[in-house]
Design a protein that fits this description.
The protein has about 90 residues and is an all-beta fold. It has no helices and 9 strands.
Length: about 90
């Protein structure tokens, strides 16, 4: 669980406004452009655009890599700079 007091636009969760959990983690897929946004448990975003078959970071401060797994559930694997990885779906969580 994480608390974000600077998130006035967040919807209330069972603990109250500002609380987030692993259930908040998800990818958001743009069906038109193929771009992917990843939202972590505290509401920060990383974004990639589709370049051919590769996902390329949109911003220069995004050092994470994104690959789409062959899983039909549209699972993505995000690998962070420290080499930890996290599977995530549009439904949220791993």
């Amino acid at each position: 669980m994480a608390y974000c007091s600077a998130c006035p636009d967040s919807e209330p969760s069972s603990p109250g406004f500002g609380w987030r959990s692993n259930g908040s983690i998800r990818v958001i897929e743009d069906s038109v452009s193929g771009a992917i946004s990843y939202r972590n448990e505290v509401g920060n975003y990383l974004r990639w655009k589709l370049d051919g078959t590769d996902y390329v970071p949109i911003t220069t401060d995004n050092f994470a890599t994104l690959v789409k797994d062959s899983d039909p559930d549209a699972t993505y694997i995000i690998t962070f700079l420290d080499q930890t990885s996290r599977p995530v779906t549009a439904r949220g969580g791993p």
